[in-house]
Structure formats: structure tokens, C-alpha cells
Amino acid sequence: MPGSEAPQRLHSSNRAGDGGGWRAWRQRRKAKRAARSTLRKVLTRTGIGVVVLAVAVAGTGVGYYYYRTGEIHHLPSPHTVAAKGPTENILLIGSTSRCAASSIALYRQQCAQGVTGVNSDVVLIAHLNGTTHTVSLLSIPRDTFAPGARAGSALCGQTWSATPNLCPNKIDAALVEGPDQLIAAIEQDFGIPINHFVDLNFATFTNVVNALGGLKMYFPDRLFDASSGLRITHTGCQLLNGTEALALVRSRHLYYFTKGETPNYTAIQAATTPTGPWYTSSSGGHYDGTGDLGRIVRVHLFLKALATQVAARGLGNPITDNSLIGAVAPNLTVDNGFSSIDMAKLAFDFRHANLGTAPELTLPTIIDGQTYYYNGYSYGDVIFPAGPQDQQVVDQFLGTHPTSVAPSSISVSVVDGTNSPSGTASVASSLGALGFHVVPTTAAHYVGPVAETVVLYNGTRHLAQAQQVERALSGAVVLGQGVPAGGADVSVVTGSDLAVAAPPAHAATAAPTSTSASGTAAAPGTTTPGTTTSSPATTTTAPSNPNLSAPQPATSPIPSWDPRSCPGVA
């Protein structure tokens, strides 16, 4: 290795009088070997190294590994925040750039055909607890419709806002404007601070799996997805190469075939969208039908299998490690603040973390069963955030407790988003019954017959107030940053699926019942945190639009047909 040559030994008698050069060289060599040995032990046990797909390996800064870190791309990210205390949140982004994966025939062809969009197929946050040295994961479904997804323009701004730059879209569309915009959307719409980001593309993913020699997974049933290219024709434990693994984690239109069924691959392959009658048992199988939510489950299962096999196999072989770094570094993008030293420290601090047992949550959402139109523009299939369930899951994920703010100290204006003045007035009345200071306004922002409710706040200084208001609501509710109407601390832009909690039991006789944005009475609701009552009410309210589902849970049972780690295989 360059720079490691031993001092030249011209004559044995020179050893005693060489000024210690020979002994010093041997000590340096011994120290380097010890450092590499320590590194290998760290990498062998490091679960977090799997989370960031070998970022920890690439950033070790030991021996010959160090120079390879220069191949990692860095981008400025003004919205990343410094970690407070011993915890960190790292955003893991799976980019859909076809042109960045020209080594794969399918994506090379799609790139040539003009499929050049860049969205985030995966939006996954790793929460690293430096006190317990544990890791937890939270996925945000890519089709989640978020008010701050794009930085925007006047065309998609709130017309009643003093800063018309709020541009709703699916959360995956934020990546078009760069990772920092995705970070901004997550922080503003869900209150999750992001300390670092790691952006990986299709090529990085496939190269990592191939550099590890493939990945073994167990398949209870045969699987097929015409859109992602997944085709598993045999059951049992199988070795996936990088391309096959990518097809698995990208599968959103999955077919499965149980024992004895004859797949009609031709009928399935002939269609390009999951809307035709062939998505039935007549095709010789069963349509999974879970879309992106099912894909998230498979991503989590894949990460568990990957973590288990890497932990058992261990890294530290210079040839394997160098191959892995070469597979990752050239196609990896991180924020400017994520240095090689930071990566090395994470690798060491979390060397005992086990991703195989890490909690894996998905942000609760409400599914819209129809094509979604916002201001007359079609956004296709979307899902809506589900406040306050989202807040509860985020608090669980971050290990934090909600900040309680006295409702009487929060001024709230209610903006008509449903084209129903009477319904808007009912919502304002119900919020007043909960103790909020309601500010009159005639502002309106109607975008269509189906819309999510946005709790709008102006900057992080009003985040706690906005979260307090959100906890008083239920349905398709989400936070959003902008300028509230009427000079209030917070605005509630009413949506088509909204209910307000009932007032505390001791005030129920003097206050109106909980109401929805349409003006109809809703069932009693959970009292807001911070209120005092010996017998809190509970809310159960059906969606006001029959096409909207109930909130999806943060965790769900694994379907019998989904793949998982091979039994007894490391």
C-alpha cells in the first residue's frame, strides 16, 4: 500500500542505531492493523450501517477506505437542523431517476423514452437514539398529499395568504426541487426535524445488493408485477440479485399466485394500469391491491432480511468492503453537514443496533378511492394525512411528548374550504367551545369537492399552537406553513372530512356539539390534551365522503404472500 513501505534494512547492525525507525514502523503497522480490526468488528455488528446502505462503511475514514469518501456527493441543505441532545433523524430518500440507472436495461430504455422525472419512491426516516443506541424507522407513503410538498409559485398558492407560495402535491414530488425541499415539507407538514439526509438512486441500490453477493429471501407464493418487472416463479428461499431486489421493493401493483393456480402472465403483462377487469382471479391469481402501503411493508421486510444477513456475514473483508464502497459512493448524495467523521461516529455508536428488531412504523393515512382533483388538476391516486393519529405516531417515533398550550392563548381563524359558510361557522363555534380564541374572517379557499383540512401556521414559533389545534380535530387533517387569515396564530382551512372534538364533559351542557365541516353533527370526540375532565369523551366519526377510508394503522400484519427472511439463513 502506498506510504506503508518498511524502512530499508541495509545491514543488520544498523537496527540498533537506526534511531528507532524500524521499531516505529512496526508500531505504526501494528496500530493500523488494530484499527482495521476494530473497524471490522464495528462493521460486523452495525445495524445502522445497513439503514443507510453502507454510508457508515463509506465514511469510516480508516486506512484505504478514507479516500473513497471523496466520491460521495454533497449538497447544501438549509432546512436540516442541528441535532438537539443524543438523538438524530436521518432522512433516507429512494430516488426514481431512471437516467441515473442506465446500467439497468429497463431504466435505460425508459430514460431514452423521456421518463426523466425524479420523485422519491422511498421516504424513510431513521430515528437514532444515542442514549439507548437503538434505531426506529418511520415511512411516509409517497402518495401522501401534503400542502408544503413544493416550494411553489403564485399559481398554486393560497389566494388569501400574504405569502402565496404554498404548493400542495404528493410528498414524492418534493424531490423534483431537491432533497432540501422534501426536508422542508416533512418538517413543516409533520413537525419532524431532519438532521441529515441520504439520497440513493436505483443504481446505488442494485449495486449494493450485488456487491454483497445478492440477498436471500423466502417467498411463500409466486409473485408478479408488470410495472416493476418483478417475476418470482418459484416458492421457497431464493437468492435475489440487485435488479430483482429493486423490482421487489418497487412493486406497487402486485399479483400473487397460491399453490395450484396457473398464472396468466400474458393477460397481466398486457395492461399498463391496475384498472382493467384482468386484475381479477380470471388472470389466474390474486391482486394484492394495497398499492404503496403494501410496498412499504415489503421495503421493511427487505431491510430486515438485509440487516440479518449483513450482521451474520459481517463486513471487514477489504475486497468486499472496497467493492461495496465503490458501489455506493459515486451514486450517493448527502447533505454538506454529514461528514466522514459523523458517519464513522454513527458506525461506532450504533455498532450493536439491530435493524432486524427495530420498530417500523408507517404514517397513518386516509385513502381516497377516486382520482383526486385539486383546483381542477388531476393528481391521480392520493392518500391524505390523518390527524391527530399522525401526531400520536410521530410522538411515539421520536419518543417525545406533545407540548400542551392553553387553548385560550391561541387565536384561530376558520377559512371556508368546503364552499359551506354554515359548516364553516359550525366548526368555528365548536373550536370556541373548546376554549380557543376564534378570530372572525370571511376568507375562503375552495379547491374541490374533496379536500384535506389544513391547520395553517406561520413559522416554527407557532408550531406548538398548530399542533394543539390539530389535536382538537379528526379526519383528513394536516399541518401547513403559511400566513393565517385574519391575523390569527393559526387558521383551520376546512376540508371535506373534518370533525371537531366535543368540549369537556363538565362543559357539555353549555357548549355546542362537535360538528363536521358540512354542518352535520358528529359523534363526541376525544378532548384535546391539556383540558381537564374526569370523563373524557371519545370521537368516532365516519368520513363525510364515502370514497375516503378510515385511517390506516401505523403497523399491520404481514400478508401471507409477502416475502421475508429465509428461515435459519444468515
Summed over residues and divided by their number, the pLDDT gives a mean of: 77
Major β-sheet profile: 7 strands, mixed
Give the second-level CATH assignment, the architecture of the largest domain: 2-Layer Sandwich
The gyration radius over C-alpha positions equals 27 Å
User: Would you tell me the structural class of the helices and strands?
Assistant: alpha/beta
Shape field: globular
> At the third CATH level, what is the topology name of the largest domain?
Nucleotidyltransferase, domain 5
- Low-pLDDT stretches: 1-19, 34-66, 272-281, 508-543
Gap between N and C termini, in Å? Answer: 33 Å
CATH class term of the largest domain = Alpha Beta
Strand-residue proportion: 15-25%
What is the number of strand segments? 26
User: Which range best describes the helical content: under 10%, 10-25%, 25-40%, 40-55%, 55-70% or over 70%?
Assistant: 25-40%
Overall number of domains: 3
Number of helical segments with 4 or more residues: 14
Q: Order of strands in the sheet with the most strands?
A: 1-14-7-2-3-4-15
